[in-house]
Amino acid sequence: MAVRGLLLYSAFALAFVGIGVLSYDRPTARGSYFVSLPETFDSTSPQQVHISLVGNDKMRISWITEDQTPSTVQYGTSPGKYESSATGNSSSYKYLLYKSGEIHDVVIGPLKPNTVYYYLCGVGSAPEYSFKTPPAQFPINFAVVGDLGQTEWTNSTLQHMAKSNYDMLLLPGDLSYADTVQSLWDSFGRMVEPLASQMPWMVTQGNHEVEKIPIIHSHSFTSYNARWHMPFEESGSGSNLFYSFEVAGVHVIMLGSYTDFDPSSAQYKWLQSDLQKVDRVKTPWLVVLIHAPWYNSNTAHQGERESIDMKAAMEELLYEARVDLVFAGHVHAYERFARVYKEQANNCGPVHITIGDGGNREGLANDYIDPQPKISVFREASFGHGQFEVVNATYARWAWHRNDDNESVMADSVWLTSLASDPT
Ligand SMILES: *[C@@H]1O[C@H](CO)[C@@H](O)[C@H](O)[C@H]1NC(C)=O
Ligand SMILES: *[C@@H]1O[C@H](CO)[C@@H](O)[C@H](O)[C@H]1NC(C)=O
Ligand SMILES: *[C@@H]1O[C@H](CO)[C@@H](O)[C@H](O)[C@H]1NC(C)=O
Ligand SMILES: *[C@@H]1O[C@H](CO)[C@@H](O)[C@H](O)[C@H]1NC(C)=O
Ligand SMILES: [Fe+2]
């Protein structure tokens, strides 16, 4: 789409997306990106490659081609030698006047842990990609970042994460900020490919993924569900909007802030049964991701039902299950709380962390409520990302890295003890 057309279309689309979002003043962000296809690309070349963990030893490979091609992945543990192959399927979707390319979805495995695999997206296609599977045991290192977008700040964040040697990325919602302009989903796919094709990216959705326009496009999450298929079937969930998985002794639950969460909802019932299945001997660490934070002392995004009502419905379930950590996004800043339950410090409650500072074009949320509540330990409105390094069954280190100009600087860090190892 021509740039002018794209801008007009954005303005039109944003008018709808803005509905229901509280407004506040944000400083200007750095410039936005549009990552185009290289001119040499042909219509069967793979693009927007990203991978996600399926079960404990399989990987979903996702990529897009302009034309229909076979959905086959060839792979192996040495470059140029592909002893194995797997075939999946492809689909496409329509959104107003836009028609997506063929979105290929192939699950490969079983795979060995902590091993580099080389793969091709399509029989005999180029280029060769590679990824590393996560370890089967501790230690494991997660990168955590929300509200990523596609600006120069996003680029800094991605570059810093790339240097951090992470095993898996966890993203608590708001990916592309396409906001109904579907070509921006393609641009986002190209922007994250260098990282997302090498390590599993496990994501949940935010408000920017809803993309429902009254009357004109009445379905929610059309693009998100088509492009970012997460392993919900394997965790007994009926929806791509909430699921769980286990990796190296960590049970991760991805919740959906923008789908029903009241006690009669499918999500609530699924969460109840998923928590019952958690074995803290096998997975001593229990982590939850949501988009809209339940604890937040920034003036941005106060009073939204996705925060208040979801917390009222589900906080007790997480508390009773002794969840260690809750990561959220949505507020474009960083904030770490003490262990909390029902607004009070509580040694059996989860640590809540807002990490919505990936680098999106809306800028930072600079204004905080004064005085700082006692339960809020550290808060700062800067772009950056987090690292959650689980050392063993008992100890993990959380560190927040700020994008200082273009340097990554560790600005907050804390050692955490798993609640599974605490008999109280
Ligand atoms: C693709 O394959 C998956 C798993 O086999 C299946 O659930 C899904 O319905 C298939 N999609 C299409 C469009 O055939
Ligand atoms: C991100 O920054 C790097 C280094 O500054 C640059 O080489 C790269 O082209 C940038 N990425 C995009 C998508 O512009
Ligand atoms: C876990 O890691 C911590 C920090 O490195 C260390 O002090 C402790 O001894 C380890 N515990 C076990 C059981 O390995
Ligand atoms: C940081 O990177 C941006 C984008 O690549 C560049 O425009 C800027 O000059 C850099 N700033 C510093 C202080 O290096
Ligand atoms: Fe958001």
UniProtKB/TrEMBL annotation:
Pfam families: Metallophos, Metallophos_C, Pur_ac_phosph_N
UniProt GO MF annotations: acid phosphatase activity; metal ion binding
EC number of the protein: 3.1.3.2
Signal as UniProt keyword: yes
Domain called Purple acid phosphatase C-terminal: residue spans: 349-409
Keyword entries, A-Z: Glycoprotein, Hydrolase, Signal, Zinc
Top-rank lineage group of the source organism: Eukaryota
Stretches assigned to the Purple acid phosphatase N-terminal domain: 46-133
Domain Calcineurin-like phosphoesterase: start-end pairs: 141-334
Family per record: Belongs to the metallophosphoesterase superfamily. Purple acid phosphatase family.
Record-given protein name: Purple acid phosphatase
Organism annotation: Nyssa sinensis
The organism's taxonomic lineage, starting at the top: Eukaryota, Viridiplantae, Streptophyta, Embryophyta, Tracheophyta
